[in-house]
Every structure is written in structure tokens, then in C-alpha cells.
Amino acid sequence: YCEAIDEQLRKAVKATGRASMVRGAALRALSMAHFICGTDMSATNSVLDLCEAACAARFRGEEVNPTLRAIALDCWALLSTTVADAYIAGDELGGAEDSGRGIVILPLLQECLNHSSVELRSAGGECVALIHEARLNLGINDDEGENTTERRYRQGSWDGTEWEVLMDEVKQRVAELSVESGHHMSKKAKKEQRATFREFMATIVDDESPSEVVSFRGGQLTLNSWREIIQLNFIRHCLQSGFQIQLMTNSTLHAIFGADGNLLSTVETMSQLEKRLIMSKTSQAAKAADVDLTRRRRNRTNMKNHFLNSDGDDL
To answer: Is residue 117 within 8 Å of residue 184, measured between CB atoms?
Structure first.
């Protein structure tokens, strides 16, 4: 499947004359295809190369729209969740030029954190959180990863490396964005940015693991790493309104997130016709609820206007 659509989607991404949203949608589709169906690591590396090229300030001799750059970073983060931590944050792969992919693009991510685009800053912060998490995981056994103090001073630390100064600057910038205020942003945008970067800061500055609970009809899903959170957010963006039903019934998503499909919801045992009859907005239950809501709304209106009717026959 990946081979069938790969070439056409790559052409769309590289077509600088197309709208940024079109190129971004093509890159998302390409990344999602390789994430779900890809089996060739060299092909995945090739898509990562394309993401790194598209998230730069200039691509093929032209400036890149910040929205496309943010999408490219989202796609890069998704595909990076499929490779080993050392491939992302290791620096002993054969020399400075063979450092992990995430380490190589740290200067680019630092530039993104200072960009005026909120979307690009958030995408860059998420990538830094993923890289830092991968760095912390290097050399930590399964039974040793809970102590924050130990995580900070062991093989996975940036201390004593050539990237220490850069990471200190990144940490300072992330901390600033977590409390940023000013008149150049709307109140809603500032609130969203502060909430987002507080989560990034917990990992990047305080070396704490993230935690996110996704509640849906039939159960809950607890995510305790940026790998899982990035995967879920990307899939949720692609599936839009169909995300919850797919999370309950799709065996591929169950395998990705390590969920037991039999425990998530009994909806999985329903046929397509049963789902349409019971869960659809046009089902009898939904229609009955709509009629009841209309009746109660009409009664409330009549009660408010009762003083206009002396006989009270409208009640």
C-alpha cells in the first residue's frame, strides 16, 4: 500500500507551487501510511529526511510557510516514535556526524521555539520533549526509570556533552513560553500556549514523565510517554470525529496502544447495521431525545410567557 501512494504524495509535498495546506495534508497522509503499513526502515528514513527538509526555514529555494513547517515537525515526531531511543537521541553512533536524528535537528528546533508562529513553537516543543525523553531513557532499565534525581544524572543526561549549552538555552526558552504573556497574542492563545508548554517543561526541565488519560465511551486509556501521546494526537487529528469509535473497535489501534479490545467496549460486538441503528445521530433513540428536548424547551417558553395568557391553556 505504501509503495502505491508514496511517489504521488512525495510529489505533492515537494510541489512548492501548491498551497501549504495541500502539501501538509499530503505529508500527513504519507507519514500515516508509513506509520501504519510501513515495514521498510529505509523507506521510513526517507520520509524522515523529507520531513526534516520541509520543516526548515527554506525548502527547494523558497521560504516555507510556518503551518507546513509545523506539520512537518508533527510528522517527524510521529515517525520518530517507531525507532529506537538511541537512533533519536544517541551520540555514540560513530561520531558527531552520526549522532541521533533528534540531536542533529536541535538547532532547528531551537529556532522554531523563537518563531512568531504559536503552532510552530508548539510543534518544536513537542519534538524537543520527545528527544529529551528518548535521551533520558538511554541506559535506564525498566526498574530504574521512576526516580527523577537518578534520571537527571546518568547516561541519559546532557551534562558534559557538546549539546549541554544548547539544551540549557532550550530549557530556558520552554520555561519562558510556559508563563509568557503580552498583548501580541489573544487571551485564548496565551492560555493554550502556557498549558502546552507547562507539559513540555515538566519533561524537558524537570525530567518528569507525562501522563494523559483519554476517556471515551466504554473505558479509559492512560498514556505515560510522549511516544504514545504523539501517536494518539496524530491519529486523532487524522480520524477527526471517527476517532472514538475507531479506538473502541479497531484492532490496529488496540495493538498500537496495547489495549484489550474486549475490555474497551461492548460496541465491538455490534454489526455495522446495529451501530447505525443505535449510535447514529439519525437513530430512533437520537430522534426521541430530540423530540423530548423540543417539548421541554417549548414548555419552558410557555411557562415564561404564561402571564400573557389569562386562561393558562398553553400549559
So the answer is: no
- Residue 63: phi and psi, rounded to 5, are -65, 145
Residue 65 DSSP one-character state: P
The count of other CB atoms within 10 Å of the CB of residue 292 is 10
How many Cα atoms sit within 13 Å of 79 on the Cβ side?
Answer: 31
- AA identity, residue 199: E
d(CA 188, CA 192): 6
Residue 284 identity (one-letter amino acid): Q
One-letter amino acid for residue 130 of the chain: L
Res. 222 pLDDT band, cuts 50 70 90 = confident
Contacts of 266 (CB under 8 A, 6+ apart): 218
Distance, CA of 307 to CA of 57 (rounded, Å) = 67
Query: 238 and 265 in contact (C-beta within 8 Å)?
Result: no
Return d(Cα 32, Cα 26) in angstroms, integer: 10
What is the secondary structure of 69-124 as a DSSP string?
HHHHHHHHHHHHTTS-HHHHH-S-SSSGGG--HHHHTHHHHHHHHTSS-HHHHHHH
**Average pLDDT of the residues in 124-144:** 81
Which amino acid does the sequence have at 164?
E
Reference 71, options 115, 23, 4; nearest CA is: 23
- Residues 211 and 222: their CA atoms lie apart, in Å, by 7
Max distance between CA atoms of the chain, in angstroms, equals: 91
The answer for residues whose C-beta is within 8 angstroms of residue 122's C-beta and 6 or more apart is 70, 193, 196, 197
**What number is the average pLDDT over the span 209-236?**
86
Write down the residue that cell numbers 426521541 correspond to. 288
Strand 62-63 and strand 212-216: pairing?
unpaired
